[in-house]
C-alpha cells in the first residue's frame, strides 16, 4: 500500500514513475543513474510496520540529511503542486536486474578495509 501511495503522489505531481518491482538496494542504487532519483520502500531488517521511503541520487548515493530535510519540509508545508488532469505523470515498468547483471565489477581501488568510500567527502 505504501508503494501505491508513493506512486500516486508522484504521478499526481506530474512526474513519471518507473516501477522496477522488487529489487535489492544495490540494484536500485545502480538503476537510479538513469533518472532524477530513485525511491525504495524498505524497512531494512525491521518488521513491516517500520517501512519507509529511501531516496537515491543518480550517482547511487542515498539522499543526504539536507536533501531529506528539504523533502520533509515540502511535505510539512502541504503546498504540493498537483498536476492538471492532462499533465499527470505516466507509469511504466522496467526490469533493473539486467542493469545489475551487466554492471562492471567494482573498482577495487575504491574499497578499503573500513568499507567503500562515500562519493561526498
The helix fraction, in percent, is 25-40%
Helix segment tally? 4
Overall structural class, as computed from helix and strand content, comes to alpha+beta
Mean pLDDT comes to 80
> Into which percentage range does the β-strand content fall?
15-25%
Uncertain regions: pLDDT < 50 for 5+ in a row? Answer: 108-121
Shape category: globular
* Cα end-to-end separation: 37 Å
Side-by-side strand order of the widest sheet: 1-4
The largest pleated sheet is described as: 2 strands, parallel
Number of strands: 6
The radius of gyration is 16 Å
How is this structure best described in words?
The protein is of the alpha+beta class. The protein has a domain at about 25-75. It is built from four helices and six strands; from the N terminus they run H-E-H-E-E-H-E-H-E-E. The strands form three sheets. Strands 1-4 form a two-stranded parallel ribbon. A two-stranded antiparallel ribbon has the order 2-3. A two-stranded antiparallel sheet has the order 5-6. The termini are far apart. Residues about 110-120 have low confidence and may be disordered.
Amino acid at each position: 500500500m505504501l508503494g501505491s501511495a508513493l506512486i500516486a503522489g508522484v504521478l499526481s505531481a506530474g512526474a513519471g514513475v518507473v516501477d522496477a518491482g522488487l529489487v535489492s538496494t544495490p540494484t536500485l542504487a545502480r538503476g537510479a543513474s538513469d533518472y532524477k532519483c530513485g525511491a525504495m520502500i524498505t524497512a531494512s531488517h525491521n518488521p513491516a510496520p517500520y517501512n519507509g521511503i529511501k531516496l537515491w541520487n543518480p550517482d547511487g548515493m542515498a539522499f543526504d540529511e539536507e536533501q531529506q530535510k528539504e523533502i520533509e519540509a515540502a511535505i510539512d508545508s502541504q503546498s504540493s503542486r498537483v498536476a492538471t488532469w492532462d499533465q499527470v505523470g505516466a507509469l511504466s515498468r522496467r526490469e533493473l536486474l539486467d542493469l545489475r547483471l551487466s554492471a562492471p565489477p567494482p573498482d577495487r581501488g575504491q574499497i578499503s578495509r573500513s568499507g567503500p568510500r562515500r562519493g561526498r567527502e
